[in-house]
Structures are given as structure tokens and as C-alpha cells.
Write a structure and sequence with these properties.
Layout lengths: L2 E8 L17 E3 L9 E2 L24 H13 L6 H14 L7 E3 L1 H12 L1 E4 L2 E5 L5 E6 L4 H5 L6 E5 L2 E2 L5 H8 L6 E8 L3 E8 L1 E4 L3 E6 L3 E6 L6 H15 L3 E5 L8 H8 L8 E7 L2 E7 L11 E5 L6 H11 L4 E4 L7 E8 L4 E10 L15 E2 L4 H5 L4 H11 L1
Parallel strand pairs: 1-20, 14-15, 15-18, 18-19, 19-22
Antiparallel strand pairs: 2-3, 4-21, 5-12, 6-7, 8-9, 8-10, 10-11, 13-14, 16-17, 16-21, 20-21
């Protein structure tokens, strides 16, 4: 998910444009979670705010729409077919967002906005895969959700989806790809995939309702607490703190925080999760706009897991809010990172709501780790690199988790 912030009650007549962005994932990332579109670029939701001073200089106060009217008049007069006014307006708004050439700036019509909200809450119908775009503008799988149709069918992070039901995904935005992959529960969607830039595969996936809590936990080997966060959603802060308090009460000797294939989500949830380890006042991240720090997020106190040896598992499906958490714990010396390099999504999005139910998700800033690193398109390197091969997945082996437990047992 990308980092998102919300702003409510905005009138469309104000100079905030809510267009739909060009799908360029990194999670992200419009979250295309679970065959939906949440933006891995996922979302960081933080305090409401609007920037009166635009970074985009030399733009007119208002656009001259006369040339647009010319195109509309010509289309209306000459098009051999039926035109829909609402769709034409949605196309204009989407085009404005797309013209930003930012993979995480996107316009959602009311139906898309509702789907987006459902995805953040963890309930929707789809295949259970977060989608985004790579550097070549391909639709890619950021992360298949554990236990859901996409993973069961065999989809893997970085798989390139080249066709949906026989139709090419070239030039599709993330949301458009999501719309094509979504469908009624029990129906089948066929995805043509290119893996590792060479192997061509085809998957028939039965759509299902995806409803999952964002946090799962268990105790391994008697005294190792395991926390799996699948997304940073509305329920993450409360669920993760309950788990942390329970682990502290049970006297666990080590913690594995599993952020693999976590496309991100809400910024405040990333801050709250980091605060389970970090004392009050420790920096979790800073936001910069046009090179200037505009906000510093700090741990909010009462860290039940402070001082407990911790290993954070990351992979190339770890994006956005999961990278914020991993970076905060690493830079503050609260955990070591194990796995492979993360996705690399270092921008912050804000959600602006319009009166008709539509929304604009727009990139407003870049985030930096406590040590001042922006990981956009760079990712975070683990302290210890441990890969998980296709054969490991096939045979249900997890050398990354095994290595994390072994390091905590030393």
C-alpha cells in the first residue's frame, strides 16, 4: 500500500483535482489488493491537511478548457455510437491524474472509491493479490495474500500479468486491471503471466470473498513470538498491540515480525506498530515536500516489546507502510532485517474526498527513514540475505522463517 492521508468534505469546485493515475505500482502503489485496487502503492493515512503552496510551479490558476470543448463537440457530432456523460467526465478526471505521470496519483469514481475503502478494511471480492506497475509500466503482482486464490493458484511477487481473459493489459492503469480481474464470487478469471522475464504461464483463478484480519500471531518453539501483518489497515493498531501485550505477559524471548508480501497501507498504523518496540519520542519517519521536512512522526510511547530481540522478515512484496516499519526498527537498532530487498515505495499519498463520493489519491510528499534515507525505487536491503525459492514455495518450506528463529535462539 502506499502511504495515504485523508481529507474529507472537499468541494469539487476547489482547486484540488481528483484524477485517476497511471498505474505504476510502487505498492504501491495504488492498492490492487486481492484482485482489487488499493494501491500498492498502498496508502499512508495520516493527519488531514492540504497544502496551499503548490510544489508545481508555473501552472495557471485555472486550466483553459476550450480545446477540451472542441474535442467534446467533435466527438458528439461525429461518433458512431452511444456516449455516456458520466463516463466522459470520469475520463477527463482520470486523464488529469494520469497526466501527472505518478504511479500513485489516481482518481476513483464513487464505485472505485467504495472498493478502495473496502480493501483497506480487509473485505472485498477478488483473487487476493496486490497489483502495481514496474519500471517498464507492466502490471505486476506485488504480493499474493496468504491462503487466498492467487497464492493457491501459484502467483508470485513480480509476476507480470500480460493478459486478463485473453485481453492484453498493455496501457491499462492499475485500477483498470483491477476492474477486469474482479468479478462475482465463484466466477473464474484467466491470467496470462510472464515470470522472471522468460517463463510464460497461464492461471485460471476462481474469485472469492476476501475477508481477513490484518494481524495473525502464534508462539513458535516455545518462546518465540511470531507476528504476521498482511496489510496496514484500520484494525492493525489495535490487533498488533493486543498481540504484543499478550507476548509480553507470556514472557517470550524473541519476536519474528513477518512483513513479507505486505503491500503497506495506513501510515498511522505503521507508526503504531513501530511504537510497540520504540520508546516515546523516537523518530519513525519524516516527510519531505520539495526537499523540506514538513512532518516528523515519532513513537507514541508504552512499547511492550522494547528490548526483546526481534527479527523482521522482508521480501520484494514488502512495500510502503511495511517498509516504514522495517526502516524505523532497523535505524533505531530495535530489530535486524532478514530476507531479500524490499519493494521500494517511498512516497506518501493523501485521499481527498469529493461530494459525489469520488476520491483523489494524490502523492503529497516523500518519506524518509530515521537515518534520512528515501528508499523509493531502491528498497531496503536486509541485514542478512536469505532467499525463498520457487521450490521452497512448492514444498511449503520457509528457510527465511527458519533462519530468523535460529538467529533468535543463539
Amino acid at each position: 500500500m502506499s502511504e495515504i492521508e485523508r481529507e474529507n468534505g472537499v468541494n469539487t469546485k476547489q482547486s484540488r483535482l481528483w484524477p485517476k493515475i497511471l498505474a505504476s505500482l510502487f505498492v504501491g502503489v495504488v492498492i490492487f489488493t486481492f484482485g482489487v485496487g488499493v494501491g500498492n502503492g498502498r496508502i499512508n493515512i495520516g493527519p488531514d491537511r492540504i497544502f496551499r503552496k503548490s510544489v508545481a510551479r508555473n501552472l495557471p490558476a485555472n486550466l483553459d478548457y476550450s480545446s477540451v470543448e472542441q474535442v467534446y463537440d467533435s466527438l458528439k457530432a461525429n461518433f458512431d455510437g452511444q456516449l455516456d456523460t458520466a463516463k466522459l467526465l470520469d475520463g477527463l478526471k482520470s486523464g488529469l491524474a494520469t497526466a501527472s505521470s505518478d504511479p500513485y496519483t489516481e482518481y476513483f469514481n464513487p464505485d472505485q472509491a467504495k472498493n478502495f475503502s473496502n480493501e483497506l478494511s480487509g473485505s472485498f471480492t477478488g483473487i487476493g493479490a496486490e497489483l502495481g506497475k514496474d519500471a517498464n509500466n507492466n502490471i505486476v503482482v506485488i504480493a499474493p495474500l496468504s491462503g487466498y486464490p492467487a497464492e493457491k493458484a501459484g502467483l508470485r511477487p513480480k509476476d507480470i500479468i500480460v493478459a486478463v481473459d485473453g485481453k492484453s493489459t498493455a496501457d491499462l492503469t492499475i485500477s483498470q486491471a483491477v476492474d477486469k480481474i474482479r468479478g462475482p464470487k465463484g466466477s473464474i478469471v484467466t491470467l496470462k503471466v510472464v515470470r522472471a522475464n522468460s517463463e510464460q504461464l497461464s492461471f485460471k483463478i476462481t474469485r472469492d470473498t476476501i475477508t481477513i484480519p490484518s494481524v495473525d500471531s502464534k508462539i513458535l518453539d516455545g518462546n518465540i513470538g511470531y507476528i504476521k501483518i498482511s496489510r496496514f489497515g484500520d484494525d492493525t493498531s489495535d490487533l498488533s498491540r493486543k498481540v504484543a501485550e499478550d507476548f509480553k505477559q507470556k514472557g517470550v524471548k524473541g519476536i519474528v515480525l513477518d512483513l513479507r508480501s505486505d503491500p503497506g497501507g495506513l501510515l498511522n498504523a505503521a507508526v503504531d506498530v513501530s511504537s510497540l518496540w520504540l520508546p516515546a519520542g523516537k523518530t519513525v519517519l519524516t516527510e519531505r515536500r520539495d526537499g523540506t521536512i514538513i512532518n516528523t512522526y515519532k513513537a507514541n510511547g508504552n512499547p511492550p516489546l522494547n528490548g526483546i530481540p526481534t527479527v523482521v522478515l522482508i521480501d520484494d512484496g514488502s512495500a510502503s507502510a511495511s517498509e516504514i516499519t522495517a526502516g524505523a526498527l532497523k535505524d533505531n537498532g530495535a530489530a535486524t532485517l532478514l530476507g531479500i530487498k524490499s519493494f521500494g515505495k517511498g512516497s506518501v499519498q493523501q485521499i481527498i474526498n469529493f461530494n459525489d463520493g469520488s476520491e483523489l489519491k494524490v502523492t503529497i510528499a516523500r518519506w524518509f527513514t530515521p537515518n534520512g534515507r528515501n528508499i523509493d525505487k531502491q528498497g531496503i536491503e536486509p541485514d542478512k540475505k536469505v532467499d525463498r525459492t520457487a521450490d521452497d514455495f512448492k514444498n511449503n518450506r520457509d528457510p527465511q522463517l527458519d533462519a530468523a528463529i535460529a538467529s533468535l535462539k543463539q
